[in-house]
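Instructor's aside before we start: the two examples that follow are unrelated to each other. I chose them only because their records fit on one page, so don't look for a connection. First example below.
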Amino acid sequence: MAVLVDLTKCIGCESCVVACKLWNKLPYHPRRTVKRQEDDLDDTRWTVVQKKRVQGDNGREYTRFVKKQCMHCLEPACASACFSKALRVDENHAVVYYPDLCVGCRYCMLACPYDVPRYQWEEALPLITKCQLCSDRLKEGELPACVGACPTGTLTYGNREELLRKAHDIIDRNPRYVNYIYGEKELGGASWLYISDQPFEKLGFKMDLEQTPPSDYTRSYLTKVPFLAAAWGLFLVGLTAYHHHKENKENKEKQGGGKDA
């Protein structure tokens, strides 16, 4: 399953942002205290709508709105980097976070090419936060909250292959669209697909991503993590035993020397 985003239809109403907050019971912070040029994801904002000003080839300036959230990659780098299995792909291909399994290493934040997972820096017991693609709603046959709240038809949820065919058909029939579907092949593909009438690089999308999934590189290394952790633990146990033995020997020598005196 996937979501197709037609950026030509987005009016920046942020209905998707509100719906996401309401369904996931996320707290509301009025723009927080740090001023930023554009809204970005944080631990309480799992999706945002960013306003972009783009100058076309004809010299005219256009305003476009770009919805940002987890891309839910088909081969997610965050999940491949998580040795505790706190991030997993479910049957609807939502990349879901299981906080009870998280050890707080934040490898997922380093691994994600889209800079999506965020950390609850202000919490006493912090967790990783990100869009879950409303996996609980999908299991009940409902739409993701953001898709259901969109009033302009910008977001379409459905089978990924069918959405790709629909996107290609839209591009073929309307020459104003850029002949590219963002998310179709990036890093092995994603469950969020974008079409646009403006070049994606002008809208802030990362265009230097490989088509090879990052998991192809990380999987072989991460299989060694449990063994390395166990080996490190044994090393520390042995080091502690050695120091205890050394201290006991020195104490005995001191006690023996005191008796001779």
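Example two begins here.
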Amino acid sequence: MATIARQETYKDLDFSFKQNPNTNDVGIKKDNASIKQSVLNILRTNHGERPFQYNFGANLRAYLFENMTNTTAANMSTSVNVALANSEPRLEVLNTNIQARADENEVFITVTGRVKSSNQIVDIATTIERLR
């Protein structure tokens, strides 16, 4: 009797809340798209924004008004890694890349990780910026 490996399917609500035309219900994100949406949510959330979970999120906006040095980039990378390790168990972070453009007041963040259930490598990128 052969055993068949079962791959987990991840499902989350689509945060755009677009209506599914077939079911007239809120759309869903599956598998890697679900994980990417979750990671972006964690990266864009500051401490204290989620009720009853003060430490949820990467708290990256706290770094936007700092001089962008190698130390600041390393601190941001550490914040990203800690936040994802605490809040996203479906992804193993392999690399975090922080690139700043001081003249544009923005920071590009790229997280490379391995989805634990499928061993697929995914790249998740976002930009955070301060307004003038």
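Residues 6 and 113 are 21 Å apart (CA to CA).
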